[in-house]
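Quick board copy: two proteins, each given as sequence then tokens.
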Amino acid sequence: MSTVSTKHRNRKNGKHVLEAKAPTPERPQPETVALPQQTSTPALKPPLVPTPAPDMTKRAWLIASFVILVLAIALRFSALELKPMHHDEGINGFFLTNLLRQGVYKYDPTNYHGPTLYYLTLPAVALFGLSTFAVRFMTALFGVGIVWLALSLRRCVGAFGALAAAALIAVSPSAIFYSRYFIHETMFVFFTLGLVVAALRFYETRATTYLMLAAASAGLLFATKETAFISVGTLVLAWLVARSRATSAAAATKASPKRASTKRSAGEEEEEAASSSPLPWFFDTSQPATQLGVWALARFLFINILFYSSFFTHWAGTVAALDSLKIWTKTGTSEFHGKPFGTYLTWLIQQEAPILALAVVGSVVALFERRANRFAVFAGAWAFGMFAAYSLIPYKTPWLVLNFAVPMAIIGGYAVQVLGERSVAGPKGRARSLLVAGLAVAVCMYQSAVLNFREYDNDQYPYVYTQTQRETHALVNEVERLAERAGTKQIGVTITSSEHWPLPWYFRNNPRVGYTGSVSSSYNSQDVPIVIGRESADSKEDQSAQLRAALGAEYKQVGVYRLRPGVRLALFARRDLANR
């Protein structure tokens, strides 16, 4: 999908003149769908943006887009292994390891979310090996993809609006933090935005390419996480709000002839059609509307069956996918991770205040401006609809913020666009919009730098949620040093603590690591030179005293390490290894 508009606007005699390139054999027009009961089908639907965007040359657009994408890449890929793997990342890594080494993945709705995370990570593992960098590489890449998709909304929110939205997402604390996290959420939000962008392009062009892309995005969305029904339901409601606003605006226009809507020129429509390059024949087949809908539904179902059946090797997974909705409904209404209604608002104010403020302004403007920008109304309803939906659900975790922070950044970008177009005319208006966007980006970037590269395990920050402490790296490194002293990489280790994730990820290459969950009466120091147990002030959870009695003088306590808030692990090693 092109993210670059080839439009060039000049001003002549007080009117906009559009210079458009005619279609060429190298840039074919997309095939269009013949809709029933229509005498003629335009190449494009009426524009969603009622006023032209501020002037911006193609060169300026490309440079600005490139800078934003480079910034997004740098913030997501730099020091990607700095933060220890989270509890959930360790479990996802366990599933991925089994899939890679045993060729087995069986979807179970009680075990977290959908299969796409594991299968889509396999190419990165093939490139970089099974490592923390490799598994986080894919989520970071999808995080950059979200920024790229935001740039493709130029026609809907204007050039400066799209750039501002992309820049806000590029530096958003939540967008960066969870792009550097091997969990489902970043992929999930990417597919949600992909569905919106593809559906929008299909609305404009009627090119079947985009309907098939929308169906594929929807299929991948549902195959990623069972909460897709919340996202899709909110998108539908947002569309109804935008449609209602457009209807009321049209009625007001009829009542007041002076408020004539701006029509696009034939040249603008022709150029937009020319800029749409269809995919190969097997992905772009023009069909009557009903048949096309059937093909889109078939594509959606095929993708879900493909992933949930583990590529046709575990058919029970397709039935389990339906059961996941029932299980999640119970989880979402339970007290597990239950928090007050205003929790997400508090978190947004603490970490995403500039994005939240711009989103409020953009949504208010979209709702009450004289000539409605239907996409802006939709984006505002989408952002605050998702915010309301997740606030109403008792189950609240910080990574869910990403579901409304991204659309908030999009409608926030529209606020920047409107400020440049209407508050002050000409270059002064654009300068003011750039100043506002620059301040918002600077604040978010500072917060992101602190969160992601300094305080990434400080649970005083809302996005740092039961995060594995950096001392875990010291524990793993100490075990590796003890193994080196013993002359082997696969040293015998027994972990007696029931709280031990993500240690199985870090010890994935050592088959001699065992997880007992309890203390034995004695240990063979030759077979098990290292024992790790939980140390706690709570006598019911503390294993230190039991281990000292069971291990005796043959072992020595090397240190105590914080695994995560409230969980500390004591490391015991055979005395001859510990004393070297």
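And the next:
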Amino acid sequence: LVCHSVLLYNYKMMSNNNNQQLADLLFPGGCTADWYETLYAPRMLPPGAAVTRLGPSPTGFIHLGNLFMAYVNKKLAAQSDGVFLLRVEDTDQKREVEGAAESLITALAYFGIRAEEGVCFEAAGGGIGEQGTYGPYFQSERGDIYHSFAKKLVSEGKAYPCFLTEEELGLIRAEQERGKLPTGIYGAYAKYRGAGADEVKRRIEAGERYVLRLYADRVYSGLPIADPGTIRVRDGIRGELALPRNVMDVVLLKTDGLPTYHFAHTVDDHLMRTTHVVRGEEWLSSLPIHIALFEALGFAPPIYCHTALLMKMDGGTKRKLSKRKDPELALSYYIAEGYHPAAIEEYLLTIINSNYEEWREAHPDAKPSDFVMTTEKMGVSGILFDLDKLQNISKDVLAHIPAQELAGFLTEWAGREKPEALPVLTREWDTLVRALDVGRGGDKPRKDLSYAKQIFDFISYFFDEFFRREDPMPENVPAEDVRAILTDYLASYDHADARDVWFEKIRGIAEAHGYAAKPKDYKKEPERYKGHVGDVSTVIRVALVGRANSPDICEIQQILGEARVRARIGAADFKGL
């Protein structure tokens, strides 16, 4: 027994020496993992404070899922006096899109999402910068950090360099698929497990490319592939999960030395002291890998919160929102259309927590920040994104925003999306504010406008540069009657008339030209009249605003001013109307 113990001790010492030699060969010099642990010390935050992060990859357009995650992360941190940080996960440099990080920050800022820490716009110059003491916050700039923890794993025999070529990997996959085995590198397929420092050095000097892999069996004491065992993880949204333990020798560092997402986020979430990781359910299948990496590194994992996928109704079926099919998935859609950030926030909270609408009904005047969000109230099946519901909520939100503030929002939109309108709206600011305020007073303010583009189209007739006659005159009013009605209207027009006086004049014009002074009179004896006073009012409305439907004409005239009213009524020849 003594001899056996001595032999075992000598074997472990030889193995440890070989591991350390291999680690020093692969990662000569540099700071140690322990040094980084000291540098990024635990945060000094109140008990229960959440540290959350948004970690987008700059490889494509910014979408609704990013915004959904951002709201959840920011709210979890804000309501617990914690920290919300923005980290750019840019290690897939082949797919990186130039300017994507800037677009991301701009889009999030539009919706009122600003991280307290991480990647941001610098105060001076407007370029991309960073704030906080746990950076760098671009993963591409954290290479030395990843290498120090990779070296730690190699020195402990938990990671190894793998020289399998693309051709060899293809052959292994084909063999596994034929045998209906799990695909990946494990067990007998892990050809370079245990390779000594001398062999590794020879291969590197020969120019052979390699990746660094996790030595899964070393982490899990040799569990067989046929029975990997089970891990139990408590998900912040889904409760306790039972998942198969990872047995794959997953890649930690790629051939270019950059980390995979799996390895980078493990190291970063630990060093940045992240407490909650909110991400989509598509990452559930990777959770065993991530738990394996936390165990291998000796880190306590954060609380993972896997949200349901964003879905939409397509006919009678519910499907996942698609980048290809659904323009409303892109955040640029909402910015271009001019949805108000407050409306987006209000809507997203209704799909983030199932009890938000009940809370809103009980607290109609409260701020969204007063609502306490819980991950337990988040859905676990497909979250239905309903654009119609968003527009209805937006109508209600806009109805409660003062006209002066709404005018500012509209001019900001015009500056981005309709620059030719900006000088007009700025020059005629008072007209703009009054136009936006039409019908918004009283106990039941009008609620028919959802977003800036729609609002501008609706009020554009107030401005001569954008005034168009879009609708025809009523079919039952011949051209000669149109001219006569408008000639009489212009002759009798007095800008100072009260509403009742003004309308009595229109009734008089109607009767003078054979139209009933009241719709009910026309309904009783349609054969006696050409139409009714409503048709005459429509003639005036089309001439004045270019549309058959609009808010109260009397109020519109007061906003347009007498000169503009007379110019529009008198300037047109109305041929073909």
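Board note added afterward: DSSP finds 24 helices and 16 strands in the chain.
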